[in-house]
Amino acid sequence: MEYKKSLFGRTVIDSSDSEEIDDKIELEYYETSNLVEENGRKYGIEVVKKEKGNKKFNIESKIVNNISNEEKHINNLLKILMLNKVTPISVDDIISDISVLD
What is the spatial distance between Cα 43 and Cα 23, in angstroms, rounded to a whole number? Predict the structure, then answer.
């Protein structure tokens, strides 16, 4: 399948968010779209976490495709994720919780 992604926004987690954090953690949020899907859920998201530690740069990401056929729903979801500084590891749980509320 052929996907396109576009940056929705960025945020940072640092010591002002948690005393357990020494260095800053950068988070990027992307809207993904399935270029060949016509009748189904063609929009999704990707969350990327970038963290520098021990002279290494660690990157973790989570892609969840085919969430909705409405781009505005994906943009609202991305806003929620970004405002709450959601990391890749908890994206599935958050999407599950939000879909239960809909």
Answer: 33
Distance between CA 25 and CA 51 in Å, rounded?
Answer: 5
User: What ranges in 6-101 are assigned the alpha helix state H?
Assistant: 71-83, 91-101
CA distances from 91 to 25, 45, 82, 95 (A): 16, 10, 11, 6
Average confidence (pLDDT) per 10 residues, the chain, 102 residues: 89 83 89 81 93 83 91 94 95 83 52
**Taking the model in full, what pTM does it have?**
0.87
User: Cβ–Cβ contacts within 10 Å for residue 68, how many?
Assistant: 18
Using a 10 angstrom Cβ sphere, with 0-12 exposed, 13-18 middle and 19 or more buried, the burial of residue 25 is buried
% helix / strand / coil in the chain, to the nearest 5? 25, 45, 30
Q: List the structure tokens of 92.
A: 């599935």
Tokens 């290494």 correspond to: 56
